[in-house]
User: Fold this.
Amino acid sequence: MKRISSGLVAVVSVVALGALASACQVAPTAASVNGDTISVSSLNAQMNSLAGAGAGQCLLALRSGQSISVDSGGATFPTAYAAAVLSNEVGNLVAAQFAAAHGIQLTAADLTAARTNYTSVLDGRITALVQQANAAGGLSACQKPDGSAYTGQQVLSALPAAARDAEVRNQAVDNALLARGADLSDASVLAFYGANQPLFTIDCVSDIATASQADADAVVAKLRAGQSFAALATSSSVDAQTAANGGQLGCNFTESRVLSALQLTTVTVGQPVTPIQTSGGTWVVYEVTNQQLVPVTQAASVIRDDLLHTSANTQRVTTELLVYAHHSSVTVNPQYGTWQGVHIVPPPTPPARYLQPSYLLPAATTATGAASTATGG
Assistant:
């Protein structure tokens, strides 16, 4: 579930000398929500964990929905970055308080389940972010220098223990809030199962790659005449790797994934699919060679998770948290900005005419001179 988002932006505020000097006498509290506080030291630790390792930068990008650059310069952070991270921390505290107010108490089992669930959630979000970046011709913050993507487990494992535990705990709170009021009954599970059979049908898929549409059509004709798919794949496919396996691609595809990839509404086991031209120019004949329906007893846990994360249920909880936040007493240390509705607005950049010339930093170094207040100066 998405937290109350501040919208991370790569804006750097340049702070005048007087502000820099006064920042060295920082109050220990960064923000408070209904009397519960977030310390400056815990905020600094959170910012350091996100801005340090590549996996931290990945998590930061996942929170905002896009890759962003945060240059800590070794000592300071941009004020917009500090405000964004603190907004997220305030959102976490709001959610925890709301959960406690409704009698929700986390157990060790809740935390274990949340960690497993969270790594899966991160995997999905990483894949989406990488695809978005690659479509634009670039790399995302969730990719390593060699282009490979981080896994959700790698992202969590790279964080300091305290930050990792906090992420898992926040996920557990989200799960508990989503479960509160959701219909997870056996009847609801059965209804979802019956209405979404392709999600629980596992297909074995094989292919035969050919050099032209004419060759592909010839293969289809032979298959319909009764020739063996595996034998034709071995003798005719131009894809040496799959040809060696009789055209087998594997038996780990859900039917919904197969239908989506082939842009079909239905497939018949043992019947070839109309040849499809790939981006590389080859023509491929696919066939679902076997199907197996996963029993509802095995699918129940997955279904209940799907029911928890429906758009309607997620929106319900988000609305509840927004209402609670609007009626909460939230105070923010002015050095990080001001609380406006559901997020923190960073302090404005002083107009250039109010700065001494020697403190007007070049663009390349603004990140290191900006907002030292974020580190307690």
Notes: The first strand starts at residue 29 and ends at 33. The first helix runs from residue 17 to 22. Residues 1-27, 358-377 have pLDDT under 50 and may be disordered. The CA atoms of residues 217 and 329 lie 70 Å apart.
